[in-house]
Amino acid sequence: MTVSHDLSIISLISQASVLVQLVMALLATLSLVSWYWIFRKWFQIRAARAETDNFERDFWSGADLNKLFDAATSSRHQTGGMERIFEAGYREFSKLRNKSHDHSATIDGSRRAMRATYQREVDDLEAHLAFLASVGSVSPYIGLLGTVWGIMNAFRGLSNVSAATLNQVAPGIAEALVATAIGLFAAIPAVVAYNRFAHDIDRIGIRFESFMEEFSNILQRNLR
């Protein structure tokens, strides 16, 4: 007599052992959370790039520094990272210029203020990237744990069977392999997104650093 088994994904998940189901649930949760941060980071980085483009265009169009500073302080919640770096540097420059006649100390203080703001901006862009990296590296192993456990249960169930057939083994192995598939489904998008976002943030960070150097040179010329 031939025993029929339903090998649909839903059936395999529902018939899996408790541990394998817990592994699948954990992987599904990690996948959902990682997709949430993938979309959040994508929108955040896209906005940061657009804000940087807009401010660079305004800055290099020859606008007055005082007007740019006033615009940055009056709409602080709508400014981008580069504009906040400019604001911090120019505020410190204006404060030190009125207090000290040491030009190098004034420029150094402005650079330190810009560097501190730069670090906060980059840290904000990099927030939760470590989570994506962890999901990408750990998920396959979590899925493998569920697969190994499911295969062990499948073969353990054959210990009381006198003649094992592929039809008896296949459902247990199939439900175990679903855990690996879910693990890869969680890991692959997280790895791709992490690599892409890390590259984009590096590019934005380079633009910030270049701006700080060029702006410091402009401030130094203004002191002469």
Automatic annotation (TrEMBL):
Could you tell me which species this protein originates from? Thauera sinica
Q: Which PANTHER family match?
A: PROTEIN TOLQ, TOL-PAL SYSTEM PROTEIN TOLQ
Q: Which Pfam families match?
A: MotA_ExbB
Compartment(s) of residence: Cell inner membrane; Cell membrane
Q: Which family does the UniProt entry place this protein in?
A: Belongs to the ExbB/TolQ family.
What name appears for this protein in its UniProt entry? Tol-Pal system protein TolQ
Q: Where is the MotA/TolQ/ExbB proton channel domain?
A: 81-209
Q: Which UniProt keywords apply?
A: Cell cycle, Cell division, Cell inner membrane, Cell membrane, Membrane, Transmembrane, Transmembrane helix
- Per the record, the major location class is membrane
The function of this protein is: Part of the Tol-Pal system, which plays a role in outer membrane invagination during cell division and is important for maintaining outer membrane integrity.
What does the record say about its membrane topology?
Multi-pass membrane protein
Stretches that traverse the bilayer: 12-39, 129-152, 172-194
Q: How does it assemble?
A: The Tol-Pal system is composed of five core proteins: the inner membrane proteins TolA, TolQ and TolR, the periplasmic protein TolB and the outer membrane protein Pal. They form a network linking the inner and outer membranes and the peptidoglycan layer.
InterPro entries reported in the protein's UniProt record: ExbB/TolQ_transport, MotA_ExbB_proton_chnl, Tol-Pal_TolQ
